[in-house]
Write a structure and sequence with these properties.
four-stranded mixed sheet, 2 helices, alpha+beta, elongated
Amino acid sequence: MQLNITGNHIDVNQHLRSFLKRKLAKIERHHDRITSVHVVLSKDKITHRAEATVHALGSEIYADASANDMQSAIDSLVAKLDRQIIKHKEKLTNHRSA
């Protein structure tokens, strides 16, 4: 899985990068054909925002989340992506078996 991390108005340091990689490893357990993930981390005046686009098996899955700190925004982003990838994989297996 290729991971691209971009920061808008925020410095993406090594600690934040490793935290994001550790969290995104959860998604790989559910779907083995994820080719790339593009993550954009940004900061407004008060809120921190995390957006991600996942390219998996000919489809694109997008999610975004915002919170008061970056780590909780990343946590909720990964939870949203996890639900969407599980739903996408269930659709693929249901259509092939029918």
